[in-house]
Design a protein that fits this description.
Radius of gyration: 18 Å
Largest sheet: 2 strands, antiparallel
Order of helices and strands: EHHHHHHHHHHHHE
Shape: globular
Number of strands: 2
Strand order of the largest sheet: 1-2
Length: about 290
Amino acid sequence: MPATISLPASNLSELAECLSLGLRQELFLTPKPGLVDLLDRGSHPDLSLPLMLESIEFVGEAFQAFARLLDQGATPLELVPSGRLLEMKLLDTFGTNTHKGSIFLGGLLLCAYAPAMQKESTLSQAVRETAATLLPGHDTGETNGARIRNQGGETGILGEARRGLPAIFETALPALHEARDNGLNGTLSGLLALARLMQVVEDTTALHRCGTAGLLRIQSDGRRLEALLHEGQSPYPFLRETNRGYIRQRLTMGGVADLLGMSFGLFRFLRNSRGSFLVAESLPDSSHQPGYQH
């Protein structure tokens, strides 16, 4: 049986707000190897904490605009031109694609939310159906992710979308629920979700910068981070040293960061929820998991 989880009957504006807050939570999660956080800019010399905060404000306004248009009856296909314009404006405003992936992911989740409520299907299934409608004609342009998908068959974020965002619904959200049930504090809870995502996400940013070796390192480091959390050891020395290594290699994981931010936002949305809604096919019972020390 699918897991039934409380959610508002229909509140796109609240979902939009939670998604933008999730991006802030991801930014503030510290330390994160190769990513901007409260300590440094990771492997991104063109980014900074203030710049990322400004970008999140920009993206939050975009999410609210999507929510208003959807409330007014716009279809997902009708939002595609607006999304592309926002991506171009993001680049023009900040000089780099700070949260381009988040605009796509957040827009997809908002587009999928209302149909999921109407059909009483899971949000993951609604994402699959929405992606099937949007992506056949979706032109990603000359992006690094597009080049990698064409060359090596890696599916990246578009493949995630077509599969219903399993990295969120089958990996990160269950990790956050498990962490909550085992009493992990906010930072350690976020790091568990980060560790799980590092192990499963085909991060095209990492592939573009460091090839398959970079992706394999991220997966290995995700396993090590989860092991440290499982063993009750402090993960912070490992994360700080790993960050230094990523900076030397120019290794980063922008796809992981985008998915983590969306997961934080959805988890917040669940906590604030009312009513009944099916989020995914199931969420694992964490009662059988070993307790984490903290």
